[in-house]
Amino acid sequence: MQYHLNGFKPGNYEIPDVAREPAPLPSTIDLPAEVDVLIVGCGPAGLALARQLADFADIKTCIVEQKPGPMLFGQADGISCRTMEIMEAFNSSELLVKEAYQLHQNAFWEPDTHNPQEIKRTHKVADARLGLSEFTHGVVNQARLHDILLDGMAQSVTHLAPHYNRRLLGLAVDETLAQDLGAHPITARFERADAGQSGKTETIKARYVVGCDGAHSAVRKSLGIQLQGDSANKAWGVMDVLPVTNFPDIRVKSFIQSKDKGAVMLVPREGGYLVRLYVELDLLDKDQRASQLHLNADHIIARAKQIFNPYQLEIKEVAWWSIYEVGQRVADRFDDTPTDKPAQRIPRAFVAGDACHTHSPKGGWGLNTSLPDTFNLGWKLAAVLRGKAHPKLLQTYETERRKVAFMLINADREMSALVATRPKAEKHAATARTSTADIEKFIARQNGFIAGTSIGYDASWLCTGHEHQALASGLLIGQRFHSAVAVRVADGRPVQLGHLNKADGRWRIFIFGDAKSPLEADSRARGLVRFLADAEASPVRQYTPTGADVDALIDVCAVFQQQDLAIEDMPDFLWPAKGKYGLRDYEKVFQTSAAHDIFDQRGIQRPTGCMVVVRPDQHIATILPLDAYGELSRFFDAFMLK
C-alpha cells in the first residue's frame, strides 16, 4: 500500500488519501458511578487492556483519557513480531501486516576512510529477527494500532469506548476494603475539560484500577510508587518527514555515524514515502533538561543534513517531531502492595507501560513492552473477576513483568550508548566513536528480546514442569507458544497453530501425539483424551461451568504424527458438539505433513509425544508427558476455582 504522496494525513489507511479526514472528536457522557476495572490512559497499554476486557459482558470496564480524542500522530512506530502475535490474538494482525512497512534489511554507514567528513555505506545485512516468528517486524503509525484496538472495543459485546477530556485529580485505595474482593475500594476523582463541562468534577469507584497514563503517571504518583534509575544525559531529535533525497538507503533501516556531527537512525515508515529520523543532538549537563536547549524542528533538520553529507536531504513536510532525553528508569513497585509483599495481600491497583518503565524510543520497545504488560494482566483480572481463578493470580503480574522491564532498561541503556557517537555526558569526552560494528553485534545478540519472542517468565506455579522440557525442546516453558503450521484433518487446510491462542481468557492444551496412531487403544494420546473426557477426573470437565460448552474454559487441540487420519475416526471429545444446536467443531484435530512437520520444527519427541499447556496470554505454562494425568490436575488445582 502507498499513501502520504501529497502530504501526511492521519486516519484509516484503507481510505484513499484524497478522501481521508480525521474523525470528529467523540461525544462525551458522564462517567459511571461504579465499575469493576478503571483504566486510566489510552496508550497501547490501556487500549490493549480495554480491548481484552471488552469481550467479557459480565465485567464492567471504564477507560479514561486526558486528551480530547484518539491519537492522530504516533510517537512509537515499530511493531515487533511479538506484538503482531498479540494482535493476531485479537483477530487484528492482517490489517497491520497489510499496512506496515516490513523490515527485512539493515544498512550501516560510517565516515568514508578517504574523506572522513562524508559518510559511506559499509554493508547491508538481513534483519536478525527474520524467522523468529511467522510475522515480520513492522513499522506503522502508533495511531493506526490504536485505531484497530478502538475498533475492536467498539465492535465487542460491551461496545466499550473511552471517556476523553478527563484529568485525574486524585486516587485513593481504602485499605479497610482492599481485601474484600467484592468491594469497590478505589475512589478516583476526575476533572472534565470538554466543551460545556470544563471544570466539572466526577467521582468513580472501582474494584481495580490500572494506571496506563504514561511517564508522568498521576496514578503512579497517587499510589506513592517511585521511578528509580538513570537520569538523562543526551538529547535526541525525532521526526517523521516526507523527504526528497539521493541517499540510496532511504527505504532501508539504517544506522549512520558521522565523524563529528553525530548519528542518525533512519526508519522507513509505512506508505512508501514517509521516513522517521532519530537525530543525535547535544549532551546534557547534570540536571539539565532538553527543553532548556530551546531546539526546534529546524535544528533537527540542520543536524541531519550535516550527518548525511555528501547526500542531499530536502524535507518537504514534517508530519511530527519531538525532542527527547535518554534516561532509563523502572518503578519500585508495579502495584499497590507494600514493598515487603505480604503473602495474603491481593493488589487492587496497578501501573503498566510507560507509567512503570521509561527509556528512549529508538529501539521501538516502549509500545512493544507496554502492550504485553497489560496482555499479561488482562486475562488475570478477567479470571479473578469472573470467579474462575484464585485472586492470588494477580500477584504474579509484578513478578513477571518487572523482570521484563529491567531487561528492557538494560538493553536500552546499551543500545543508546552504541547508537550515539558520544555516549558519555562529559563535554570533553574522547574522540567520537564512528564504528557501527558493535551495533550490528548487539542487534544479533538481542534479536529475540527486540522481537519480543524470547521473553520468558521464571519458574512458578504458573510456569512449571521444566523437568519435562526435553519433550519439546523448541517450545520453551515460560516463553510464548512458538507457532508452526499443522494440517487440519477435517479439511486439509494448513493452519498456524499459534493462531488458535486467542485473547478470550481460555487456556489451551495441545496434545502432540506419540508414535502410535490415536486409533489404537493403547496410544498414549488416546489415553489422555479418555482422561480429559472423563466427567469425574478431568480438570477440563471439573472447571467447566455446568451447561457450558466443553471448551468454554480449557480448549483442547490435538496434533498427530500420522498423516492418514479421518475426522470421523477421532474421539468425540476432539470434535465436540457445541452451542444451542449441538454443531460439531471440526477445528481441533491436526496432523503433520512432509511440508509442515511441527514435531521436527519444535523438537517434539516422536516416540512419546507430550502435552503443552498454554496460558491465555499465549505463554507456555507447562509441558507434561501424555500420561501425567495427576500432574495436569494438580497444575490447574493450584489456582483455579470451581
Topology of this structure?
Layout: E1 34-40, H1 44-53, E2 61-64, E3 78-79, H2 81-89, H3 93-99, E4 101-102, E5 105-111, E6 119-126, E7 138-139, H4 142-154, E8 166-173, E9 186-192, E10 201-211, H5 218-222, E11 227-229, E12 234-245, E13 253-257, E14 263-268, E15 275-283, H6 297-308, E16 313-325, E17 329-331, E18 349-351, E19 357-358, H7 365-385, H8 396-419, H9 437-445, H10 447-451, E20 485-488, E21 494-496, E22 507-512, H11 524-533, H12 539-543, E23 554-560, E24 577-578, E25 583-584, E26 589-591, H13 598-601, E27 610-614, E28 620-624, H14 629-637
Parallel strand pairs: 1-2, 1-10, 5-13, 10-18, 22-23, 23-26
Antiparallel strand pairs: 3-7, 4-7, 5-6, 8-9, 9-10, 11-17, 12-15, 12-16, 13-14, 14-15, 17-19, 20-21, 20-26, 22-27, 24-25, 27-28
Helix pairs in contact: 1-4, 1-7, 2-3, 7-8
Describe what is shown at a glance.
This protein is α+β, with helices and mostly antiparallel strands and 642 residues long. A seven-stranded mixed beta sheet has the order 6-5-13-14-15-12-16, with helices on both faces. It has a seven-stranded mixed beta sheet with strand order 21-20-26-23-22-27-28, covered by helices on one side. The protein is globular.
* Structural shape: globular
Helix content: 10-25%
The total of helices stands at 14
Strand content: 15-25%
End-to-end CA span: 50 Å
The main pleated sheet reads as:
7 strands, mixed
SS content category: alpha+beta
Strand order of the largest sheet: 6-5-13-14-15-12-16
Strand tally: 28
Low-confidence stretches: none
The mean pLDDT is: 91
What is Rg? 26 Å
